[in-house]
Structure formats: structure tokens, C-alpha cells
Amino acid sequence: MVEPGSRVLDVGCGDGALLAYLARHKGVDGRGIELSMDGVHRCVTQGLSVIQGDAETDLKDYPAEAFDYVILSQTLQAMREPRTVLQSLTRIGRRAIVSVPNFGYWRIRLQLLLTGRMPVTEKLGYQWWETPNIHFCTIKDLVSLTEEMGLTIERCLIVNRAGRITGHAHSGFANLLGEQGVFLLRRT
Q1: How far apart are CA 63 and CA 126, in angstroms?
Q2: Burial of 25 (0-12, 13-18, 19+ CB in 10 A)
Q3: Phi, psi angles (nearest 5°) of residue 179
Q4: 127 in helix, strand or coil?
Q5: What is the pLDDT averaged over residues 16-33?
Q6: How far is CA 173 from CA 49, 68, 121, 169, 182, in A?
Q7: What is the pLDDT of residue 22?
């Protein structure tokens, strides 16, 4: 979804794997913001331009349209104010790429139904009391929120357990069969 040579901000960039990949294979001018100092150190030792910061408080300091793309991967559900974060992402970048785990995925539903307990899966590998996920959402929930916020979904990839793309967000089975959704968003 990222065009070669773009200016990219990776929010919550972790160890910098995505930034390094985009720089190497797409020639992007990449920057990152990461909460953990350990993650920042790992990025900087790879030669990546990453600062320590909290997305929920620090994104307000970035100017509008400073980047072509702002990426938030598998983190929105851990934010206290996901709506505010989405507004910041789409203000800072001409486009935002947001990926989320789908809590409506059939394996999660089945595990909850059969065991009566909060599911633990490969992608959601935490017990309920230790999870960083504070907002459990489905693909349908995220689509609904973007519509409510007046954001346009330019593209959406629904990814199954094997990492294969299985459809788009508005298909009838996306919420059931997709383990995660990847959304390309922009302000309307």
C-alpha cells in the first residue's frame, strides 16, 4: 500500500522491522515513534530515525500532512482513545494505514463459545488480565467507526490465519473469516 519514495511515519514501530523493510525495498524516507526505549535503541542501532514518544499524547505535535503515509500496525486496540488517534493519523498523513486484529474471527468466536473463557490465540497471545488490548473490535466495528468519522477506506485487505488475503471489508464473510484487517484510510 506504500508508494516507493514516500515519506512515512511508523507509529509504534517496535524493533523497526517494518521501517527497515520499507526503506530497503521501497526507498521510503521513514521515521518512527516508539513508546519503549528498548525498541528505540533497537531501531537506532539499525540506523533508523526513531524517537521515543507516546502516540496518544505526542501525535498532536506533528504538523498536518507532514507525511505521505502514517502507519499504525496492530496497535489501535491498545489505545485509550482510538478515535482521537485515528483523527491524528489522518491529519498528519495524507493517508493512514491501520491494521487491527479481528475479534470477530471465527476461531475466536468458537473458542469463546466452547470454553466460556476469553480466547488466547497465536495473534492474541495474552490472558485477559495481562492483555494490552483494551478495546476489542471487529472488522465491522472499524468500518463503522471510519464511516462515522467521515474517513474514506481507499483499500482494505482481510488477512486469514495463513497470511493470505481473503477479501475486502464490505464482503459478507470478512468479519468471520479474517484474522486481521489492513485499512488504507484518508480524510474525505
Answers
A1: 36
A2: exposed
A3: -75, -30
A4: coil
A5: 97
A6: 40, 31, 20, 9, 15
A7: 97
